[in-house]
Amino acid sequence: MDTHIGSVDGPALAAANGTVGCPASAPGCPMASTPAQPAATLTAGEASLGRHLARRLVQVGVGDVFAVPGDFNLTLLDHLIAEPGLRLVGCCNELNAGYAADGYARARGVGACAVTFTVGGLSVLNAIAGAYSENLPVICIAGGPNSNDYGTNRILHHTIGLPDFSQELRCFQTVTCHQAVVTNLDDAHEQIDTAIATALRESKPVYLSISCNLPGLPHPTFSRDPVPFFLSPRMSNKMGLEAAVEATVEFLNKAVKPVIVGGPKLRVAKAGKAFVDLVDASGYAYAVMPSAKGLVPETHPHFIGTYWGAVSTAFCAEIVESADAYLFAGPIFNDYSSVGYSFLLKKDKAIIVQPERVIVGNGPAFGCVMMKEFLSELAKRVKKNTTAYENYKRIFVPEGQPPDSEPNEPLRVNVLFKHVQRMLTGDSAVIAETGDSWFNCQKLKLPEGCGYEFQMQYGSIGWSVGALLGYAQGANNKRVIACIGDGSFQVTAQDVSTMLRCQQNSIIFLINNGGYTIEVEIHDGPYNVIKNWNYTGLVDAIHNGEGKCWTSKVKCEEELTAAIETALGEKEDCLCFIEVIAHKDDTSKELLEWGSRVSAANSRPPNPQ
After folding, report:
1. What's the average model confidence in pLDDT over 489-514?
2. How far apart are CA 469 and CA 116, in angstroms?
3. 3-state class of 212 per DSSP?
4. In angstroms, what CA-CA distances link 300 with 260, 276, 305, 448, 542?
5. Measured between alpha carbons, how far is residue 173 from residues 73, 100, 178 in Å?
């Protein structure tokens, strides 16, 4: 079985110079697939900081940098443009540039964005925080003030009017795993390499500020092509690994009907294949948490769906919660994923496997145990037990289809997603925006190789527009289908323009139901109603006759069918924007259930003092 799904076990990324990027399935992160050749000596004009940074980005697999120009980063952008194999993608605003780097990192394993000092940095900050929450290595490059201005009492533009230039740095310290401010050439080489290496090692964003007068300057440390370096792989403590496997085998082999549940940290642990190997060896039924959808195959015969508490796939929660042992690989338990803390799970039945730690029941716990190694070793020793899967097969009833629509009947959302399901192939990917699309897209059955991404931990509305831009740029072998609500689209709509400039052929379903539907189901109020736009008219205006774009507004199933046929047929090389008119109260049953439980969790009274 091909288990290289999404970016969990993605392929190596060949750079323009023949080196290999950071293959997500590798134990470490080699930056060259062959023994290093003697580095070429560069001319003084070539031996610059800007060229070194650009070449390093290409080496680790970045082929596109999402940028917004500003006077502090313009010289640096010149060097990024000049680098073979690196493309500068100009975005309409910094927030979308950050979201695009997030989407690109999901597709390619690492992403990068470039902004200007403070006004750009603080604008991109929200997107970087989202990438941090989702464990994505994004290199955020900010053009900084002239190095001569540091330590003076000067007040610069693009600041809050104080001579202290550290505000941007301090803001980034809580949402990045490493920060570097490059103000001199002597240690710039080390600062750049350390920042990039840390992003890849930690699978988190980093902040890299470079003074605006430095990118074009030569320095002896840049006099040769960057030598490909190797990130030492993290290895398990062998005694700890053996003890963790032994305790887990004993725990699982005593169970009557154990199950496995995959979580979102399978991505950061690069353990997708090891997870599937364990499923094959154990015979257990397996599910995924909602934020892990797309990280492991759904075509495996023992896949039972999404485990999401009360809003799980049909019959999935019953099997998971009735199990006498459940192994969670890389979970994140929060109020959203637990449906307002309403999981019916018991800690003493759970084995929690995090990227570097294993906890068996109420104890013991084992540190310095790498998830990928642990799952692989466990697969060699666990006894086969198909009881939970057999129980699932006994109670399973195939899901019904929405009732047929009457001629010209107003389009129902469940009918829309019936047609979206039919569109999916191994050459597709799905981007689901925060909102009811979370729940409707969870029910899609992904064919082998079909990608799937959404932002559950951070849940920032508007994320999907920029993420679609970046993901489609990084996964240009797939046609991406995005499901976006009207409220979310209004936040970040401008970068449809950049999709057209990049000649992307994604399909956007804009679900126009007049407001923030997910908020309505948590707590309704007049603030959840938004001004209606002529969305197709807006996209046509953005198109303005430049590039390939096709729009359609659909109100019934007949019009939807015709629009999809056109998007997949004569307009397959176009960016296709289909506005779907839906009733404001047309929501999934899962959102109704989830909303009421999250509302109850949010409205808990204070504990007695």
Report:
1. 97
2. 21
3. coil
4. 13, 9, 11, 9, 43
5. 21, 21, 7
Contact 20, 231 (CB under 8 A): no
The alpha carbon of 601 is separated from its chain's Cα centroid by a whole number of angstroms, namely 26
324 is in an annotated binding site: no
d(CA 430, CA 449): 11
71 has pLDDT over 70: yes
- Range 21-27, long-range pairs (CB < 8 A, 24+ positions): 21/59, 21/60, 21/61, 21/62, 21/108, 21/109, 21/110, 22/60, 22/61, 22/109, 22/110, 22/200, 23/109, 24/109, 24/267, 24/270, 25/270, 25/272, 25/273, 26/233, 26/270, 27/233, 27/372
State both tokens at 190: 């080390």
CA gap 132, 126 in Å, rounded: 10
Residue 410 has what DSSP assignment?
B
| Contact present, 147 and 211 (Cβ < 8 Å) | yes
Q: How far apart are alpha carbons 1 and 396 in whole angstroms?
A: 25
Ranges of beta strands (E only) in 323-478 are 326-329, 350-354, 357-360, 365-367, 428-432, 451-454
Nearest to 93 by CA among 77, 116, 75: 116
Would you call 556 helix, strand, or coil by DSSP? strand
H/E stretch holding 510: strand 507-512
Contact indicator for 465, 434 with CB cutoff of 8 Å: no
Look up residue 15 and give its DSSP letter: -
| CA separation for the pair 510, 351 (Å, rounded) | 41
Tokens of 412: 């129902």
With 0-12 / 13-18 / 19 or more C-beta atoms within 10 angstroms meaning exposed / middle / buried, residue 423 is middle
513 is in an annotated binding site: yes
Strand partners, 209: 142, 181
526-545 pLDDT per residue, tens: 988 899 999 999 999 999 99
**Total residue length of the chain:** 609
Write out 474-505 in H/E/C secondary structure.
Answer: HCCCCEEEEEEEHHHHHHHHHHHHHHHHCCCC
Q: Reduced to 3 states, what is the DSSP secondary structure of residue 64?
A: strand
DSSP letter at 400 equals P
| pLDDT tens, residue by residue, 250-305 | 999 999 999 999 999 999 999 999 999 999 999 999 999 999 999 999 999 999 99
Q: Is 32 exposed, middle or buried (0-12, 13-18, 19+ CB in 10 A)?
A: middle
Q: Are 599 and 529 in contact (CB under 8 A)?
A: no
Q: How many angstroms separate the CA atoms of 482 and 99, rounded?
A: 14
Q: What angle do CA 352, 354, 360 make, to 5 degrees?
A: 30
What is the pTM assigned to this prediction? 0.92
585 marked as part of a ligand binding site: no
Amino acid at site 362 = N
Torsion of CA 125, 130, 134, 138, to 10 degrees: -30
* Tokens linked to 458: 């951070």
